[in-house]
Amino acid sequence: MTDTTAASGHDDRYKVLTPICISAVIIPLVFTGPAISTPAVGRDLGGDQASLSWIVNAYAIAFGGCVMAAGALGDHIGRKRCFVSGLVLFTITSVLIGFTPNLLALNLLRAVEGIGGAFVLTSATSLLAQEFEGDERTRAFSLLGTAFGAGLAFGPIASGFLIETLGWRSPYFAIALISILILAFGTPRIRESRNPDAKGIDWSGTILFTAGTGAAYLWDRPGTTGRVGQRSRRCALHRLGAAAHRLRDCGTTERPTDAGPVAVPLSPVYRVQILPVATGFSFIALIVYLPIWFIAVQARDEFAAGLAILPPTAPMLVVPLLAGRLARRLSPGILSGVGFLISAAGALLLLGMSPGTSVWPMVLPMLLIGIGSGIPCGLMDALSVSVVPKERAGMAAGIFTTMRVAGEAIAIAAIGAALIGFTVGRLSVRSTEQTITLPETAAVLANGIGSGATVNLGASVSALVYESYTDAFHAVLIVLAVLAALAAMVCFLTLRTSTAKLPT
């Protein structure tokens, strides 16, 4: 069984890196920009916080639910074709969002944009896997991780600047412009590749998995209480269980071939998935909620909050590339485990944060979190496709990207719910007499502080709420440190063997 396009040995394959790495910069921009713009969108188009949250959630759920199908589809019809299709969707939806008249249309377009993101990221990974082998593949994927890190590092700052100067619609026009430039000058350099034995897509499995991804979010969503919340959780549990059952049985959304089932060997592929899931909790969730803490508790504006989280995001510019170089000599599993331990240490040191603390004492802990998370981020893309034959790279990339995006979405929802729960718990201990009415405060938190929106409270109540919210952040940091340490142990025990090493 061979791929229609073998890994090239000519120098032109390095030209493929430019458009793919630029597209990797766009992915975090499409996620972080709309998240920061949520308050401005609310002021312009209206809508409660639950509706506004779907600006991010619609994209994340569509992205996470479609990446596995996008990988299998790329194997079937061509990875370049899927890559171009994703960029076209980015361009069209971003322009339409720039002129959208209401919140419902915006949320629907964001879901379509999420499908485009699934096509772009999964195809980019598969295309690199086809062009490079051995140490060159490791370096290429390290550059891909660095590009993704650049989007994470500067995305919040760039988006905040554009929103403050040109309005909330401007980041979408910027995304459309970058997509057009890649289509015009980058994609002609990319060669087509596909799996000649691919037979089609399991659409029922895709739909079921997408429903399961959405159910996982609904299960963790804060503010869902009462009988409605119980019914929603029961429904979510049924959908999530069905999706997990389908994923266990199939291992992919690609149909069987004449040579037998295409499901990859369970152990190598699924051992690697600990890396994106753990990174979702130890890093992605933090860079979502740390700006909210800076905005809500320390009264910083969006641009200042973006600058404040440079310490954890800036290492993503260089650490993934350095990790790729170290992987030539050391096991990627061992390196990833060390990275998670560094991240755990940073989370524990960050316990010194308080409402009156300057950002400077927080720089070192946040740097450690960014450095530690950057190590597995620079290795996990290459690991995900190194455990399968090249002609199955699209499928493996789909499974990996699914776990990355679904893990990040669940981590964000779970950490958000934990912050609200811990905050209300701390308020119940701190409040005395009738200073605070807990049901009202819980509603304020669910619709205000926890989402980054501005909340008008009395001075004494605000101080108590912000102190409790910071205490909740401390509890979450401890949990994240424990999870990172456990992820390190899993890496040391299961990814240190030769089956998990990158090709040399």
From TrEMBL:
A single cellular component GO annotation: membrane
GO molecular function, one term: transmembrane transporter activity
Record's subcellular location: Membrane
Species this protein is from: Agrobacterium tumefaciens str. B6
Keyword presence, Ribosomal protein: no
Coiled-coil portions: none
Annotated Major facilitator superfamily (MFS) profile domain residues: 1-499
Keywords of the record: Membrane, Transmembrane, Transmembrane helix, Transport
Protein name in the entry: Major facilitator superfamily MFS_1
Pfam families on file: MFS_1
Membrane topology: Multi-pass membrane protein
Signal sequence coordinates: none
Presence of keyword Lipoprotein: no
TM segment ranges: 16-36, 56-74, 86-105, 111-129, 141-163, 169-188, 200-219, 274-296, 303-324, 330-351, 363-389, 409-429, 441-466, 472-495
InterPro entries from the UniProt entry: MFS, MFS_dom, MFS_trans_sf
Domain of life: Bacteria
